[in-house]
Amino acid sequence: MANKSQPGSILHTPQAEKLLNDKAALERLLRSPDTKALMEMLQRQGGLQAAADAAMHGDPTQLQNLVGRVMDDPTGAGVVERIKQNAPKP
C-alpha cells in the first residue's frame, strides 16, 4: 500500500508553502490533466463533498479513507505520484 500522510499535514510543508505563494504554478497544477483525473477518481469513489466538509470541520477520517482507496489503486497512485513530481520543489 502507498504511504499515506495526514491530509492537513501537507499544507504545512515547504513545498506546499512555495506552491501556495506561486500563483502561476498553482494554476498550472490545478489545470493539469493529472489533477483533473485525480478529482474524477475521488468523485467516483463517492462522498467527496462530505469528506471535504468533515475535514474542514476538523475530522479528516473520511477524507483519509477516500484518498486511501484511490492510492490503493495503481492508476490512482500513479496519478498522485505524477502530481507530486510536477509540483514545484521547495
Considering DSSP H and I runs of 4 or more, what fraction of the residues is helical? Answer: over 70%
Give me the secondary-structure category: mainly alpha
What form results from the Cα inertia axes? globular
Q: Quote the average pLDDT.
A: 83
C-alpha end-to-end distance? 26 Å
Instruction: Report strand %.
Output: under 5%
What is the N-to-C order of secondary-structure elements (H for helix, E for strand)? HHHHHH
Q: Which blocks of ≥5 consecutive residues have pLDDT under 50?
A: 1-5
Rg estimate, integer Å = 13 Å
Main sheet specs? none
Number of helices: 6
Number of strands: 0
Protein architecture, described:
The chain is an all-alpha fold and 90 residues long. It has a domain of 46 residues. Helix content is 71%, strand content 0%. The protein has six helices and no strands. Helix 3 packs across helix 5, helix 3 runs antiparallel to helix 6 and helix 4 crosses helix 5. The chain is globular. The N terminus is likely disordered.
List keywords for this structure.
90 residues; 71% helix; globular; disordered N terminus; mainly alpha
List the helices and strands and how they pair.
Layout: H1 14-21, H2 23-31, H3 33-45, H4 48-56, H5 61-72, H6 74-86
Helix pairs in contact: 3-5, 3-6, 4-5
Summarize the entry for a quick read.
This protein is mainly alpha-helical. Helices cover 71% and strands 0% of the residues. The chain has a domain of 46 residues.
